[in-house]
Amino acid sequence: MILLDTNILIEQVRGTESARSWLTEARRQSGRLVTSALCVTELKGGMRSPERRVIDRLLGLVDIVAVDEAIAHRAGELMRTYRRSHQGIGIADYVIAATALIHGYELATLNIRDFPMFEGLEPPFRV
Known about the structure:
Blueprint: E1 2-4, H1 6-13, H2 17-30, E2 33-36, H3 37-46, H4 52-59, E3 62-65, H5 69-82, H6 91-103, E4 106-108
Parallel strand pairs: 1-2, 1-4, 2-3
């Protein structure tokens, strides 16, 4: 299963053709796609009113993974490991990374530098 970072969802909302094509193929190959509850927070918090319907429809197509105690603990461990060497990583990114690691999901993101814990990570498409 593939865990979608917020920026992947944003590109879909913006109508980016490469995002649309990649998401269609990813969904066809893996069945369901997932995202973190924190991605929902980021997406909803940054949306403009006219985007509400598109975002709600998009979120209906993915499974939303709750942040539980195991994810919180793993995110904290990641933060302790990377906070000095990678100061720009936000708490949401640590939680998203922990969610992928705990559940064994492949991570799809355009912000590779925020996820040094995934060796060889590449963006799934270009914008």
